[in-house]
Amino acid sequence: MADSADSSVRPIRPIRPVRTSPLLYIVVLPLLERLLLGVVAALAQGYIPDRLDPAAYTQTVTLRGLLSPKSPLWKLVGPWIRWDSFWYLGIATGGYTEKAQAVFSPLYPAAIHLLGSLTGQPTAAVAISLLAFMGALLLAWRLVEEQWDESVAKRTVLVMLLFPAAFYFYSGYAESLALLGIVGTFYSAKKGQWIWAGLAATVATLSRPVGVIAVLVLASELVFQAQADRRAGRKVQLLQFASLFIPVAAYLAETLYLYQRLHILGIAQAESLWGGHIANPAATTGALLSAMLHGPTAGFTEVQIVANLFALALILVTTVTVFLQDFPPTYRLFTLAMAAVLLLQTSGSLPFGSELRYTLLLFPMYIVLARLLKRPRGFTAFMELSACLLCFLLVEFVRFQYF
Predict the structure, then answer these.
(1) How many whole angstroms from its chain centre is CA 305?
(2) 3-state secondary structure of 74
(3) What's the rounded Cα separation, in Å, for the pair 246 and 166?
(4) For 15-49, how does the pLDDT look when each residue is reduced to its tens digit (9 = 90+)?
(5) How far apart, in whole angstroms, are the C-alpha atoms of residue 238 and residue 188?
(6) Measured distance CA(110)–CA(206) in Å, rounded
(7) DSSP secondary structure code for residue 277 in this structure
(8) What pLDDT digit, counting tens, does each position of 222-239 carry?
(9) Which of 6, 191, 234, 382 is the most exposed place for a label (fewest CB within 10 A)?
(10) CB 301: neighbour CB atoms within 10 A?
(11) Which residues are CB-contacts of 152 (< 8 A; sequence separation ≥ 6)?
């Protein structure tokens, strides 16, 4: 009797944890954020006076296509076309015609040129940025989830979405495309998909000058994989190293093209035309602090000073954390290289240039913030503050007050 009673008892199935759908964070939230920020940008453009006359910029290039500044729908796109956007649109329209354009890498304007024939170039510019950003979010989610766990992946994507300078990911800037290439290089190299990693590094290299550091990610992963194969007694596949040829060849082709077209040799010469140069980070930081205490000179504002100081703090925290915590060696090498570039460069009259925008490509920074902000209250507070700063800087950006 006891045996029959025991046999009728069904075993309790373990409850499986509910897995969050990445689509909510990768598709729904970016589109919702773009909609909400679009409302903020349209209101800023309609009710807050611009610092500069936008007509002075829109007249510098021919904006061909279905949507132009004369269209009543321009407010949907116009606020996102600012500063460097006009340079990208100018290259997309007429190619490289002056030396100052050499600092703008060719992939983004080439993509605008191709898609712009269907949608209009300003629309193409913001559409490419949005799609590339969503692609970067997808790869970041998968990469971080496999390296750590889903909770860290979720927080990483949220930090990327609500970072104070995240509006550049929706603007006519190449940051989204460059970030897609950088994250794609990390992800494909980790998977051992070397050709895809080489193509992703090429996207990063041809999107922003600093994107060439993605080649370091690919090279270091190749070396680490070769060492692991040797320790395991497996034959090292030298053919894998051929993937390095793709971004290196692309970079050399870009350099030769710009030299032939504009007689500019290398990014350093191109940056010098904009006042960019290598400087002592301590001296540049001192100049930034002096500007904060005594007021800025012509060409930049107090908002840009505070934003650059915030960016410097983020760079320092990221660099220290990747060495103190269990980050893979590739992340550490990439962070060191990016930090060196960000700290050693300065541009024009503004110490460090647009440093907060430059930190957008420091991919490990998002993971560092996600891992440091483990407690829900701390993470929520940081996200609320970051969202407020995001809206404020977007308004300043639309008003030509922040670049």
Answers:
(1) 21
(2) helix
(3) 30
(4) 555 566 788 899 999 999 999 999 999 888 776 55
(5) 18
(6) 10
(7) E
(8) 998 888 878 877 776 777
(9) 6
(10) 15
(11) 144, 145, 367, 370, 371
